[in-house]
Design goal:
- Helices cover 44% and strands 16% of the residues.
- With 263 residues, it is of the alpha/beta class.
- The strands form two sheets. The chain has a six-stranded mixed sheet with strand order 1-2-3-5-7-10, with helices on both faces. A four-stranded mixed sheet has the order 4-6-8-9.
- α1 links the parallel β2 and β3.
- The longest helix has 16 residues.
- The two termini are 28 Å apart.
Length: 263
């Protein structure tokens, strides 16, 4: 177990049996994404990606709020050139390109950058109180960290346009119905459920999981025939791994497999 470093607004809350829990903790600002939070989140994800003992990452905020958006005070008077020179996209890359499974545990508001951050993850477990939205239009803006692109891919054009053009919030139940989240549980079980699911995934072959994630994400932007080739090649490569042979042997011998996560 790794305890919080009090100076950090993003910290590693725990690391047990291959599951790392990352918490955003800026309660006075409803976990709004300022430069410090973005930087700390990027640095921590980069570090966890390099650690072999970390197999799955759970990302969460507080019990009342996930991330309520970007910190408006940081950009209210900024010029286009100032926004360009900040290159905030570099802080999202370690999350977007993390090769390991990432699960978001969302309670309360996931708005603007918070909704975008959740959509950077692979699975979203939402508490009943969760509210998702892209309200940038109400500030005379639009999403700038993937909201227009990831949202339409997740829920389709018509639901995405409704959220983007009105800035409305959708409930956890609505989000589940439209395909924006994976599961909805009671608020007091959100992190628990995400962690249990993470442990279940962590016990599976790491290389197979990495290939699955890469193929799904990269294949989504390819023509179907090209994506199928990508899938086929990744499938074939896994036959060279220890875990594939162990999984097949365990199935035939009717025993529980012991995966090693090694080539």
């Amino acid at each position: 177990m790794i305890n919080k470093q009090r100076s950090s607004e993003v910290y590693l809350a725990s690391l047990d049996d291959g599951v790392a829990v990352v918490r955003i903790d800026r309660p006075h600002a409803k976990n709004a994404l300022n430069g410090t939070v973005r930087c700390q989140l990027a640095e921590l994800f980069s570090s966890l990606t390099r650690q072999d003992e970390v197999r799955v990452i759970v990302l969460t905020g507080g019990e009342q709020v996930f991330v309520a958006g970007a910190d408006v005070k940081e950009f209210a008077e900024a010029s286009p050139t100032e926004m360009h020179l900040r290159h905030n996209e570099r802080f999202w890359e370690p999350v977007a390109r993390c090769p390991k499974p990432v699960i978001a545990a969302v309670n309360g508001f996931a708005l603007g950058g918070g909704c975008e951050l959740a959509m950077h993850c692979d699975i979203i477990i939402a508490g009943e109180s969760a509210r998702f939205g892209q309200p940038e239009v109400k500030l005379g803006l639009m999403p700038g960290a993937g909201g227009t692109q990831r949202l339409v891919r997740a829920v389709g054009k018509f639901q995405a346009m409704r959220m983007l053009m009105t800035g409305c919030m959708v409930s956890a139940a609505e989000a589940l119905a439209m395909g924006l989240v994976s599961e909805v549980v009671s608020d007091d079980r959100t992190l628990e459920r995400a962690t249990v699911l993470a442990q279940e995934i962590a016990n599976l072959p790491a290389l197979a999981l990495e290939h699955i994630k890469e193929t799904v994400l990269m294949g989504a932007d390819l023509p179907l025939e090209s994506a199928l080739v990508l899938e086929r090649k990744a499938f074939q490569l896994l036959f060279d791994t220890v875990d594939q042979k162990e999984g097949a042997a365990a199935f035939i011998e009717k025993r529980k497999p012991s995966y090693r996560g090694e080539p």
